[in-house]
Amino acid sequence: MKSEIITTIPPDIRDLLNEEAERINNVSFIDKDPVQFPRRFSRLQDIEIAAFLSAIIAWGNRKMICRDAERMLNLMDNEPYRYVMEEGYEDLNPDMNLHRTFFGRHFQYFLRGLHKIYSDYGSVDAFSASVKAGDSETPSWKLVAEMQKIMSEVNGGATCSQCLPVNLEQTALKRINMALRWLVRDDGIVDMGVWKSIPKSKLYIPLDVHVGNISRELGLLTRKANDKKSTEQLTELLRTIRPEDPVVYDFALFGIGVESRDVKGKVGMDGADC
To answer: Which residues pair with 103 in a beta bridge?
Structure first.
């Protein structure tokens, strides 16, 4: 039996989403979220590296994610672009544990790819523009597919799912969609808006277990899987409220439940593990 596709958001749920998005999309959010790390920098390349590295380890407890993102920046002497271009990562122990199942070898894999991108294009934003990611209906999946080619090329043909998902037909691409929210959205509050290659209207919700469960509880999503199709359906629905900026509602879907906000008469779930 096929899951029903929701096409309309009831007025009370729309009002809740707008209220929660405004409440959570606040500068006070920054200090407890991995977005704090790219925000430390002013140079585009430093911002990009900090954003992607912080995002690709963004699974598990937020405090642990922030702790380990801090460790990675310290490894780079808090000069990520210089570190990448000088290939400092080659001196690391590949078995060094950086975050849960993310090790030194994965860190090296990803930074080798970034070194190639920066050497050839100057920035990941310029690379994104060159592969016309913003022209795609699903820019983040297009970008990852093209980044994978570069990453694999400079790593002896290997892939690395710890860095970039390889099942692009199924994956929700949560971590990269989160990084792109930081880089593309330009309201000047939490997100940085430093990229020009992808319009914010084409961003997709970073769909994880918590956001998926809250979306189902609110009646925004009926599919059980937190996959690409669910990400597309949920984002398309949110575009009916704010077509120019649908992922502003990532703040709302994250916030509901994290602070035990009552949802439709029910106590929301603990969102510490995101």
So the answer is: 97
For the entire predicted model, the pTM comes to 0.93
Give the span between the Cα atoms of 57 and 113, in whole angstroms: 17
- Cα separation of 50 and 58, whole Å? 12
Rounded to a whole number of angstroms, the distance between the first and last alpha carbons of the chain is: 29
Q: Are 170 and 53 in contact (CB under 8 A)?
A: no
User: 228, 204 in Cβ contact below 8 A?
Assistant: no
DSSP assignments along 8-60, one per residue: ---HHHHHHHHHHHHHHSSGGGGGGSGGGTGGG--SHHHHHHHHHHHHHT--S
Position of tokens 């997709």?
Answer: 204
Query: Strand, coil or helix: what is 83?
Result: helix
Q: Which residue has the tokens 């929301």?
A: 268
Q: How far is the C-alpha of 252 from the C-alpha of 214, rounded, in Å?
A: 10
- pLDDT tens, residue order, the chain (274 aa): 567 888 999 999 999 999 999 999 999 999 999 999 999 999 999 999 999 999 999 988 899 999 999 999 999 999 999 999 999 999 999 999 999 999 999 999 999 999 999 999 999 999 999 999 999 999 999 999 999 999 999 999 999 999 999 999 999 999 999 999 999 999 999 999 999 999 999 999 999 999 999 999 999 999 999 999 999 999 999 999 999 999 999 999 998 976 545 555 433 333 333 2
